[in-house]
Amino acid sequence: MLLFMKTPRGARVAALLAPAGRMALTNYLTQSLAMALVFTAYGLALYDRLTPAVVALGALALYAAQLALSKKLMATHRYGPVEWLLRTITLARLPHDRDRTGVREA
Question: pTM here?
């Protein structure tokens, strides 16, 4: 996989995945919450009612939505919402989330 990422095609794939990676904790918690609400009794209680193929398609659809939203959010912010909150708690102050032009720094 690492050798693939060094190729031109791999670099394009890495660029598509990078925004989601920059807000990995937010995406992880969102996936966990969404799937818990779908499969447990707190939500739709669909455990054992869906085929594995339907579950896989749902998970891929959620991930695709997260990729799109991550790209949009990371275009104007430095951190995801949970990453920002964690940084705020850790630093005991509000971190700068945007530069003066509204676009994140490189």
Answer: 0.83
